Inverse folding.
């Protein structure tokens, strides 16, 4: 979840990044998250442990990055309405977060974030910042179409859609199917619309 440069401003080697994340995914698939160690990842990836710790401060952070690998959120074209844009984002979120590996790793990371301010800041500045930016773009599209009376804080939109989604997956331990995804997107669209109306009367 760290930036694309090593300490001192030197660009990171993306090949090493890929090896570390691939090794992490393979080991989680083979033996599960609890058995994962930094030593195993270093050996499987053919890199030194220092290379891993320059990128990730903990096993949970590394595993979360591996299970949520790739560009996130993915580029999502304009689907034509606030609801359809939110639905596309929710479905993409589900693909990444409902896997068995992600459902094991995310609660561990949440626990580490609670006691580690530095990790909390990195998580906010990377994954959450990207999700907020995606929602800000969706909200601006809706404002431009005339669907919303004005913009709202994307942090609130995040809580309405992805926050409830994550709670269902990682806290309540629900099995979320596409019917529930469409219901969550509809509820989030209604909530965002009502909030925009309230704030921009």
């Amino acid at each position: 979840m760290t930036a694309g440069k090593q300490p001192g401003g030197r660009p990171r080697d993306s090949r090493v990044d890929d090896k570390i994340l691939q090794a992490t995914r393979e080991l989680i698939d083979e033996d599960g998250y609890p058995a994962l160690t930094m030593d195993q990842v270093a050996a499987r990836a053919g890199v030194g442990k220092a290379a891993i710790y320059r990128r990730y401060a903990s096993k949970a952070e590394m595993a979360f990055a591996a299970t949520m690998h790739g560009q996130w959120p993915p580029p999502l074209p304009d689907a034509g309405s606030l609801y359809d844009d939110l639905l596309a984002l929710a479905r993409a979120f589900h693909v990444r977060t409902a896997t068995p590996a992600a459902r094991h790793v995310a609660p561990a990371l949440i626990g580490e974030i609670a006691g580690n301010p530095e990790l909390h800041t990195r998580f906010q500045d990377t994954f959450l910042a990207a999700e907020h930016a995606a929602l800000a773009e969706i909200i601006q599209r809706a404002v431009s179409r005339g669907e919303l009376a004005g913009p709202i804080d994307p942090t609130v939109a995040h809580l309405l859609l992805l926050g409830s989604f994550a709670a269902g997956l990682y806290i309540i331990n629900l099995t979320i199917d596409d019917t529930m995804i469409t219901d969550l997107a509809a509820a989030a669209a209604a909530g965002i619309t009502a909030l925009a109306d309230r704030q921009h009367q």
